[in-house]
Amino acid sequence: MLRAFAQAFKTPDLRRKIIFSLIIMALYRLGTFVPTPGVSAANVRECIAVNSEGANLLDMFNLFSGGALLQLSVFALGIMPYITASIIIQVLRVAVPRFDDLYKEGQSGQAKLTQYTRYLTIFLAILQSTTMIALASSGQLFPGCSMPVIVNAGPTTYLFMVLVMTAGTAVIMWFGELITEKGIGNGMSLLIFTSIVSSMPMQLFQIGVGGGWGKVAIIVVLILLVTVAVVFVEQAQRRIPVQYAKRMVGRRTYGGTTTYIPLKINMAGVIPVIFSTSILALPPLVAQFGSQEDGWVQWIQRSFDQTSWVYLLVNGLLIIAFAFFYTSITFNPDEVADNMKRYGGFIPGFRAGKPTAEYLRYVMNRLTTVGALYLAIIAILPSIIMIPLKLAPGQMPFGGTTLLIMVGVGLQTVKDINAQLQQHHYEGFLK
């Protein structure tokens, strides 16, 4: 692997792409430390140090922004508006026939959907930045912190901050597209990977200083074990054999080949975990606007703590439900069966058409059951580990979402580099 990595840098074209990707990722990290005009960086740091409730509440969103969200930097919103917009556009394919028709049109339709995703990203960035500024100005972002985080507060300052944060989201979206076009790997995924990895060393160091290095060693071992399990499951496939009958077109013979349909155990990826975490973050957010003496506020704070059995049970059930829902959107057995029938393909032992679709649906339901349980276990495991280690939610350096994203992005990037190396007749990372 090290030899292949060295050969990758010896290839001028691949070396240029890797260096370009690293430069963009460095610029992205630099922007997370630039405060938005109108924000007191010193007061923000002080509020983060003395207050943990706001960090726990917005932990996932702060994670995807590389810590920029709670610092109210120009890249405070991170990649989350784009992720949300992409998910919404994919879900609309089921509800709006126009979006499904665009998806089937090929490259021109995909370009149109990408354009819609960009517009929706900007709209969500305006909405989220307005919400963040409202929470910061009202003191709800950092409860218990008396120092103002926004100086010279006023309509003009708020409007300018919204414009700067929205422009920061547009720049991040541009960075991701630049990496995809001129670099190596998927740009948006690499930016998320950068945000997640950048915060882990500091969190491990803080645990070692405050709770002992034995906890750090346990966490590192668990990360390695879970990573191995995630790699094994993410690489696993159920291969459905497909045969194509021979057919004559003019004087040429087409078909007569045997191939397979690769079905992953986890077809939904990390999306169900993101959906579930986002929904479970809403009740604590609503509770912030109530009185601490109210019974319903206390029940929410007690029940939706990441170590409570209510939170773990609801989180697992939501992940399983969203896994089935999202898989049904991304994989349509009827469409796959129709395409196979159109080109003369069939699964041995099943007639083309409806019997093939029913068989594919049966296989996918079984795979999705295993994949959903796998996602639920990976997502709940960090919360269970926090109980014996006596760690607060904000102290845990990894979660199910982070590991799934890190391993998934790492595997895909290695495959992309391997493909580039094979084009230059080099031995790649994956054999």
From TrEMBL:
UniProt KW Transport keyword: yes
Endpoints of the signal sequence: none
Top-level taxon in the UniProt lineage: Bacteria
GO cellular component: plasma membrane
Protein localization: Cell membrane; Membrane
InterPro entries, per database record: SecY, SecY/SEC61-alpha, SecY_CS, SecY_dom_sf
Spans traversing the lipid bilayer: 18-36, 68-95, 116-137, 157-176, 188-207, 213-233, 309-331, 370-389, 395-414
GO BP, sorted A to Z: intracellular protein transmembrane transport; protein targeting; protein transport by the Sec complex
Function, in words: The central subunit of the protein translocation channel SecYEG. Consists of two halves formed by TMs 1-5 and 6-10. These two domains form a lateral gate at the front which open onto the bilayer between TMs 2 and 7, and are clamped together by SecE at the back. The channel is closed by both a pore ring composed of hydrophobic SecY resides and a short helix (helix 2A) on the extracellular side of the membrane which forms a plug. The plug probably moves laterally to allow the channel to open. The ring and the pore may move independently.
Family annotation (PANTHER family): SECY/SEC61-ALPHA FAMILY MEMBER
Family: Belongs to the SecY/SEC61-alpha family.
Assembly description: Component of the Sec protein translocase complex. Heterotrimer consisting of SecY, SecE and SecG subunits. The heterotrimers can form oligomers, although 1 heterotrimer is thought to be able to translocate proteins. Interacts with the ribosome. Interacts with SecDF, and other proteins may be involved. Interacts with SecA.
Record's protein name: Protein translocase subunit SecY
Organism: Scrofimicrobium canadense
